[in-house]
Amino acid sequence: xNKKIESKNLNLYYGEKHALKDVRLDIKEHxxxxxxxxxxxGKSTFLKTLNxxxxxxxxxxxxxxVTLDGxxxxxxxxxxxxxxxxxxxxxxxxxxxxxSIYDNVAYGPRIHGIKNKKQLDKIVExxxxxxxxxxxxxxxxxxxxxxxxxxxxxRLCIARCLAVExxxxxxxxxxxxxxxxxxxKIEELLMELKKQYTIAIVTHNMQQASRIADxxxxxxxxxxxxxxxxxxxxxxxxxxxxxxxxxxRFG
Amino acid sequence: xxxxxxxxxxxxxxxxxxxxxRLSSFLSTGLLVVIIGYIAIRAIPHFSFSILTHTTSVxxxxxxxxxxxxxxxxxxxxxxxxxxxxxxxxxxYLNEYASNKTFVEIVSFTTEVLAGIPxxxxxxxxxxxxxxxxxxxxxxxxxxxxxxxxILPIISRNTQVALQSVPKSYREAxxxxxxxxxxxxxxVLLPSAIPGILTGVILxxxxxxAESAALLFTAGSVAILxxxxxxxxxxxxxxxxxxxxxxxxxxxYDLAFVIALVLIVIVLVLNFIAKWISxxxxxxxxx
Lengths: 251, 287
Hints:
The complex is a heterodimer of chains A (251) and B (287). By secondary structure, chain A is of the alpha/beta class. Chain A has a domain at 3-95 and 166-246: 3-Layer(aba) Sandwich (Rossmann fold). Chain A has ten helices and ten strands. In chain A, strands 6-7-8-3-9-10 form a six-stranded mixed beta sheet, sandwiched between helices. Chain A has a four-stranded antiparallel beta sheet with strand order 2-1-4-5, covered by helices on one side. The longest helix of chain A has 14 residues, at 117-130. Chain A starts with a strand and ends in a 5-residue tail after the last helix. Chain B is mostly helical. Chain B has two domains: 12-46; 51-285, MetI-like (MetI-like fold, Orthogonal Bundle), CATH 1.10.3720. Helix content of chain B is 73%, strand content 2%. In chain B, strands 1-2 form a two-stranded antiparallel sheet. In chain B, helix 1 crosses helix 12, helix 3 runs parallel beside helix 6 and helix 8 (181-210) runs antiparallel to helix 12. Classes of the chains: A alpha/beta (251), B mainly alpha (287). Chains A and B meet through helix 2, helix 3 and helix 6 of A and helix 7 and helix 8 of B.
């Protein structure tokens, strides 16, 4: 499988704190890659470096290289708007805008200059269908998104992300605020989406990683300890620390 | 019955406190009612609609406050046009763009000091700087510029608080799908912050309507109807509060009370409009 994103010698500092240490990791196309590890291990920080969301955090220094299809995303010539069109992000807490369901999904396309009503209608419908939400909201597209349930809101956020037709979707613990049934729906959705998109997901939940991820990377105090096919990581981890973590000896 | 649960429910200290609390809440609302009632009783016998629609003229023998009403509205509009963009823009800059913490703190501190200065001092500054140094003399413009400085802290402070209360997750979501910062501010931040920003603007309007000390030596005390709205900006114009002050000085209490009533009605109406607008534009209330 092709490498979609490659990071090499990636170091990240929050002020003095060394938060990511020489991370080397490839994310393969049309697969789900999961990042696991205990709180504060750097897995979310790493995810955010992949579409430069750390640009907005004060006192962050990043060295090393992250490439998307071979292009360095930290090159000074990079337009972050174009980068984030290709690499979308879904966050831990469902965060729909206080607008209608329609306007939420149309937000991204509008940024990128699509004004035509018919075209927007099509994109909204297509994205909501892709996020398995359309049937539930078809009759109330123009009501506030804040009236949806938590699980629906998170699928709306996925639809909003899909509407700009990204190539990569980053998800930062997308189900940790949801109930088991909503979680299951989102997991099924991700399995479906990986056919078209490249997916990277941070999760606290090892069962979730083992259920949906093709590849898994284990992080510990800023280091990427082990990376491989999910079945290998869970069946025969190479590193003692990985084994200790997945067998529940710490975390 | 020593161990019965059915003991007296009210302890004496609770009861005293209860009475005190009721008394103080009654006093605060009661005072408002009494003041408004007193003003209404004194004003209504002398009130006529011709007062609202005429100019005081010794030659024609008419009494009226129409010029003062126009001046007050004019003063509100011009002052808000000056202070609104600066105050809101400044708050956006401080909250969203400024990265130098010391700078932000200095500006915030200065703003707070500015808010605590007695208004007569603004009047003194306005008279000397705008009136004499910039040669704008006694004029509505001089008054508006002076009031603009005075209300700047109210607008900017309220805008800042409103912006800070917008969840961080909205910003992340917008930036995460490629919005530029300004696009995010325009489409997500400001719409969510509008109720708070409007509260600041309405409070500022209240200050403008109520102000007399800062206007006495900047906008002056002339009360004639404008012949041209643009040139009117450069001519002296007494607002309702200034007129009230003048009439009290002349022991003309009947007219003073009528003006007071008009002022109170304007303030009440503004408050209701503010409430209505805030609710109407509140995007955060969900369905």
